[in-house]
Amino acid sequence: MLRLNNLTASVADKTILKKISFNFEKGKIYAVMGPNGSGKSTLASVIAGHPAYAIRHGTIYFNKENITDLEPEKRVQKGIFMTFQSPPSLSGVTIYQLMRYSMQGKKDPVVIRSEVKKYAEKLKVPEILLNRSLNEGFSGGERKKMEVLQAVILDPTLIIFDEIDTGVDIDALKTIAKFIKLMHNKNKTFILITHYNRLLKYLRPDVVLILRNGTIEKTGNMTLANHIEKHGYGS
């Protein structure tokens, strides 16, 4: 599915990721954890092709295709989607309009509207928000739910959830986690970027990666995540 080979990346001439190699398999849920500044969000942004991050060395393969130099839009077309850690607002653009534009030529507008309403209901998003400018005046939980809503409509094969659990209350977290679990299947790979394991308690990742100082320090399963919660990253 997704293979990182000896990946070194920087932002503003500062090296953040250092020689990272890892293979993300199809159909699995991965959690990437680590202290602040460890490189978690940088890793997510580099996979998604964010232009602010420069790959200094190494390669990224997605479904056996080298996408190292591919533009973000092309990566989305190939099935890679990343949720925003801090979702921006779009004045004058509703979720219906955004999804119609994003799925132009792929899905009938009537089908898109029906899907948006159906999934919004499952995510407990008030219908009134669907007709308002996206994220304008929305709470943190509502913004994160809208990110998940976009992900399910776009139907990518690789979704990177960048701190989808921050800025949300426990009820919103449970709703989001339940919905993400329903979204997952054997053809989809999920990467959860997080500081804590409260989201992981609901989703139970197959693999947990610990990033520290821009490298993968440890890999394991929920036992590792529970150990980190109890003892911290320094243990």
Automatic annotation (TrEMBL):
Superkingdom in the source lineage: Bacteria
Alphabetized UniProt keyword annotations: ATP-binding, Nucleotide-binding
Domain ABC transporter: 2-234
CDD domains: ABC_FeS_Assembly (cd03217)
Gene Ontology MF, one: ATP binding
UniProt cross-references to SMART domains, sorted A to Z: AAA
RNA-binding as UniProt keyword: no
Family: Belongs to the ABC transporter superfamily. Ycf16 family.
Official protein name in the record: Fe-S cluster assembly ATPase SufC
Organism listed in the record: Candidatus Roizmanbacteria bacterium RIFCSPHIGHO2_01_FULL_39_12b
Source organism phylogeny: Bacteria, Candidatus Roizmaniibacteriota
